[in-house]
Structures are given as structure tokens and as C-alpha cells.
Amino acid sequence: MSHPPLKLDAAGVNAILLKAFPETPPDHMALVVEAQPGRVRIRRPYGPGLLRPGGIISGPTLMTVADTGAYGLVLAHIGDQQMAVTSSLVMNFLRAAVIGDVWAEASLLRLGRRIAVCDVKLWTEQPDRIAAQATVTYAIP
Asked: pLDDT tens digit string along 43-66?
């Protein structure tokens, strides 16, 4: 499947994320570490505030990382459109996300003029031990 070219690289997407969420310290944000046509990889550094009882990464943290990954993917392909908004997020929790940095890879399923659909896989241990998967839809202004 051929994907549209990137309009922004990882640094460009991160600049928009940091501008859009100025109250969040950069070491508490999921930021893009790699961007390629059709996909981005992001990392949210581990912090003790990410845990739920039982010592695993919380569901709300994983959902935030999934949404940020999809947003970053959309921005990488459409450019600086901060008003792109989540219209749907369906999350599947597959196994416990053990303590560690939270990684996600977001892949573009469809990019139209008004809507983008993304598949996001999340893990903490290694990419072949997926902890969660999300399908995220973004409305594009």
C-alpha cells in the first residue's frame, strides 16, 4: 500500500505537540522518535505516576499514548493542523503493560480530506509483546 509523503518529520511533529500542550513537561509527554510515510513511532518515558494498583501501566496512560500516536501520525501527513480532533478511539487491552517506557507505533489505514483512520500498537517490553491495540479516527478541519 502506498502512503502519502510526510509533510513534517519527527522534530516538526514534536514542535507542534510541545506548542499544543505547553503545561506538560517534555519528559512527561509521548513524543515522536521516528516518522516515515504511513507510520510514526512514539515513546512516553516511564514515570511513577503512570502506574495503577498492581504495579502495571494504567489504561488511561495507554489510551493517552495511543491518541498521541494517532495525532502525531496525522500531523506528520497533513502538517500543522492543531485542530484535528479525535472522533473515535477503540482500545483493546491484550496483556499487562509492565513497568517501563511506553512505546507505540501508529500506522495509517486511511487518510482522506476530512478523516484519518489509524491503527496503533502499544508495548513496554518489546514490539512483539503488544500490550494494547487501538483504532483511532481523527476528524480533519
From this structure: 999 998 999 999 999 999 999 999
